[in-house]
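User: Can you recover a sequence for this backbone? Please restate the input before giving your answer.

Assistant: Of course. Working from this structure:
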């Protein structure tokens, strides 16, 4: 079953994290068990407090949804021991004509090479001219020749080596071409058998010939093997009884990991152009193999986007993924899909309000702790119902979920907006924990937001914050950076800015001073700050 990742935006806030968890829980309750909530960034103090309060752990973190080797329907060919015979490997190829290569493993089951049909065919052709074998295990020989040892040699051998000679009558002499230490393939030829003893052959193979009383009385000291095969076939089978390790190519095998990205794999495959590439895990165990055709139409990761629909805010590699659904309450942006998808975008203050409605529409009630967590997310994203994005639907849903979760909304608001004081957080955390990039009419602007019940403590870090904003602006070639320090008690925002002062002045009709201005009744980034800048830049 392929997982479907449910993800919020980068630098996730409470609404984003909880929306991913709630939507996955909804789908799982409906029987779709493959939905998995994930996150793209670290959990901030507010969200962590909420998760701990209701007994949840943060979703797993992912870095991208680029297509990986693990997403492919790669082949899973038999994995053979390199100690098997060449004949055994060829039989595997014969039984499955779709195989182009077989991975070989050593005694520790780790990849040690790759053998192809061509490797075996090339070896077999070369064997026609090569009349010598080295260190062939006797067990392999007996299996290949379908034979058995018929005598009790003085010195039993474990391996066979030597020049291969088929004894045929010779006109010039009666030596049959035999040499010292050779492997003699003898038919029903007592004289040839006797000559092999005289020349001290290392082994005698009786081909379709009985080990008669006459031969036994010659008391051969070397190993004598009987085979029902005729001599020429027996010689061929002897060559094929070598272990596969003896013919493995010496070139380094190009392998891939399940975590490798298809873009990188494709480049390497085009560079080397081999038939097959083993896939191994971190321990060197073979998982399968891939060929060029696997890369033509790879299976994409499946993703559901919640609380955003803007490419710059979404998971890296989204263009390689298949978007299944989008659940959001922001303006429509630039995310594109290959196929029609389920899209739900409502003008409410929190994504969890939408998902709560979906629970209701399906006749489902969220579990008690999840309901309390969803109510917390609505309080967070609507700034305790003070945000201009807040609707009556948000208020009603938050109250309904609070009753299910047996929680007090005022108590929740007090807890999350005082989750951590400014002195306990780095300037990087203050600026980037809840941060989003926007592209408006050719301008690039970054906006961070800190929601607190004590804006005064955050403003004591103004000098450090402005310095970091200036540095970030320069390094990323941006047009403007803003930090909204939203105070839920004052119902307004202290806005720190880096960029053109006149833009702030005209967009918000204020007189900014020393990179700071207070905006009364402004608490929403998406409904008050971004629209004001959009009007300025057309």
């Amino acid at each position: 079953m392929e997982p479907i990742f449910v993800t919020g935006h980068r630098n996730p806030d409470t609404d984003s994290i909880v929306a991913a968890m709630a939507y996955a829980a909804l789908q799982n309750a409906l029987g779709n068990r493959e939905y998995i909530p994930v996150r793209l960034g670290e959990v901030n103090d507010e969200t962590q407090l909420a998760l701990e309060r209701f007994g949840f752990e943060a979703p797993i973190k992912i870095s991208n949804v680029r297509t990986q080797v693990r997403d492919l329907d790669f082949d899973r060919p038999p994995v053979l021991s390199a100690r098997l015979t060449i004949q055994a490997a060829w039989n595997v190829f014969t039984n499955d004509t779709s195989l182009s290569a077989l991975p070989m493993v050593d005694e520790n089951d780790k990849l040690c090479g790759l053998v192809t049909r061509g490797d075996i065919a090339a070896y077999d052709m070369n064997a026609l001219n090569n009349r010598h074998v080295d260190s062939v295990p006797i067990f392999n020989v007996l299996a290949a020749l379908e034979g058995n040892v018929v005598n009790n040699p003085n010195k039993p051998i474990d391996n066979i080596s030597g020049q291969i000679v088929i004894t045929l009558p010779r006109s010039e002499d009666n030596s049959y071409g035999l040499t010292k230490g050779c492997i003699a393939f003898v038919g029903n030829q007592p004289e040839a058998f006797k000559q092999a003893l005289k020349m001290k052959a290392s082994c005698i193979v009786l081909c379709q010939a009985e080990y008669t009383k006459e031969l036994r009385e010659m008391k051969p000291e070397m190993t004598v093997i009987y085979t029902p095969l005729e001599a020429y076939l027996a010689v061929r089978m002897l060559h094929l009884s070598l272990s596969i390790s003896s013919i493995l190519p010496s070139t380094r095998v190009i392998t891939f990991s399940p975590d490798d990205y298809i873009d990188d794999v494709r480049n390497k495959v085009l560079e080397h152009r081999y038939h097959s590439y083993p896939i191994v895990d971190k321990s060197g165990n073979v998982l399968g193999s891939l060929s060029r055709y696997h890369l033509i139409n790879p299976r994409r990761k499946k993703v559901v986007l919640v609380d955003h629909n803007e490419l710059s805010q979404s998971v890296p590699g989204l263009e390689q993924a298949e978007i299944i659904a989008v659940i959001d309450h922001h303006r429509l942006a630039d995310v594109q899909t290959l196929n029609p998808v389920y899209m739900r975008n409502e003008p409410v203050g929190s994504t969890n309000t939408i998902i709560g409605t979906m629970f209701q529409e399906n006749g489902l009630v969220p579990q008690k702790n999840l309901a309390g967590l969803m109510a917390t997310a609505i309080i967070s994203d609507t700034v305790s119902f003070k945000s201009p994005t807040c609707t009556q639907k948000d208020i009603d849903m938050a109250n309904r979920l609070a009753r299910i979760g047996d929680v007090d909304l005022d108590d929740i608001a007090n807890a999350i907006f005082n989750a951590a004081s400014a002195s306990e957080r780095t300037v990087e955390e203050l600026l980037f924990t809840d941060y989003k990039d926007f592209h408006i009419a050719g301008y690039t602007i970054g906006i961070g937001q800190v929601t607190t019940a004590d804006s005064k403590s955050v403003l004591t870090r103004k000098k450090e914050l402005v310095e970091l904003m200036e540095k970030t602006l320069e390094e990323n070639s941006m047009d403007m950076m803003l930090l909204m320090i939203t105070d839920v008690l004052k119902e307004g925002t202290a806005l720190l800015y880096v960029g053109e002062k006149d833009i702030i002045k005209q967009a918000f009709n204020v007189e900014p001073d020393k990179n700071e201005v207070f905006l009364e009744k402004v608490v929403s980034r998406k409904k008050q700050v971004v629209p004001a800048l959009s009007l300025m830049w057309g």
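That completes the design. The first strand starts at residue 4 and ends at 7.
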